[in-house]
Amino acid sequence: MSIIQAENLRKVYGDGVPVEALRGVSLSVDEGEFVAIQGPSGSGKSTLLHLLGTLDTPTEGQLRLLDTDVRSLRGDALADFRREHIGFVFQMFYLIPEMTALENVMLPLLPYKRRAGFDVEERARQLLERVGLGERLDHLPGQLSGGEQQRVALARALVNRPTLLLADEPTGNLDSRAGEEVLSLIAEMRKEYGLTVVLVTHDDEVAAHADRIVRLRDGQVVEDNAAL
Ligand SMILES: Nc1ncnc2c1ncn2[C@@H]1O[C@H](COP(=O)(O)OP(=O)(O)OP(=O)(O)O)[C@@H](O)[C@H]1O
Ligand SMILES: [Mg+2]
């Protein structure tokens, strides 16, 4: 199944001096693929990831995710779609400092606990154990190392059993060893859960873990070694 079908995505920011962040990006990603997006600073990588995650809307172009035209989804329907199918990991972790690791992982599903169809707390515990933090469930983010915090963020991204994991420089704030651990976990999770992964990185060593590299420059795809 095709997970992402993007055609000619354009994104223009600002109404004063417009910035054309994406100038017609097309991209198809199949189920189970691990795609790295690379390119210089300002080339549009984060913008593309935001559009693919439906966190922002394109100025022009078509976007289908899991065969759904995301432009047909509005408001609650869009939020439901995102919660059901997409997980995010960011460079800055974005954990809630007053909440424990376990609470942070449960957070995306807290309002939907009854509807989830599974025990959210149990799943959050299992994921934290899976990322090696079974002994840290009650720790606050401030009591965890950067690598541990990112592993909590990864568990949080997976608590909704997403099809698509989007990661923007997930190792950008970590030393190489912690970064390698997070990356290995992403690769393992992808196999275990059949995840499709799109990961933005400027680091060639990180990109080497992917089975496909898409390079952006000035808002356009300049290289895509997709299997033909
Ligand atoms: N909210 C915004 N408003 C206006 N311009 C923006 C906004 N977000 C990004 N841009 C501009 O769009 C272009 C692409 O930005 P983007 O953040 O996608 O780049 P990037 O490839 O992720 O860069 P980096 O590697 O530094 O994270 C840049 O010129 C940036 O200044
Ligand atoms: Mg960026």
Structural commentary:
The protein has 228 residues and is of the alpha/beta class. It has a single domain (2-224), classed as Rossmann fold. The protein contains seven helices and ten strands. It has helices spanning 45-52, 75-85, 101-106, 120-130, 146-158, 176-193, 204-207; strands at 2-13, 19-30, 34-38, 60-65, 68-69, 86-90, 164-168, 196-200, 212-217, 220-224. The strands form two sheets. Strands 6-7-8-3-9-10 form a six-stranded mixed β-sheet, sandwiched between helices. A four-stranded antiparallel β-sheet has the order 2-1-4-5, with helices on one face. Helix 6 links the parallel strand 7 and strand 8 (196-200). The longest helix is centred in the C-terminal third of the chain and has 18 residues, at 176-193. The two termini are 16 Å apart.
